[in-house]
Predict the structure.
Amino acid sequence: MSIVKEGPPITPAGMAKLRARYDHLLGTERPAIVEIVSWAAGNGDRSENGDYLYGRKRMREIDRELAHLARRMKACRVVDPASQQDRTRAWFGATVTIADEDDNHRTVTLVGDDEQDASSGQIGWSAPMARALRGAALGDLRKVRLPGGEKEWEVIAITYPEQR
């Protein structure tokens, strides 16, 4: 019996970006700030020392982000879209081309919430558009409630990354 880790899905590339950010903060940025703070602390009065005060503030920000990234990496479940068995429907990692009633085409990729970027067409798994597209097949019509009102989209293409 295999144990499936539950949690929000993330692509391998998304997890790699989280890991890279974590490693950069921990291995590069934080040590540089620690060095500045320790140098500034040795200069005397800390209450009026801008380098010391800013450095401590920046170190707290880095520590908060490190804790957040650690929680996200622990909670997320890595799902490789290339290993999707049912490629006839839109599931996690699918790149879906949709058209509205005015024949305006839009291509979106369903990714984890931690890696969403609407400007590049990557929408988070729990976004309204992604929820509407889950399980859709070619030719399906899906209604999405958007801030500007309800809109209907037809699924015209579904693709997945190739298996390595």
The CA atoms of residues 22 and 70 lie 8 Å apart. The mean pLDDT is 91. Helices lie at 12-41, 50-75, 128-133. The longest strand covers residues 149-159.
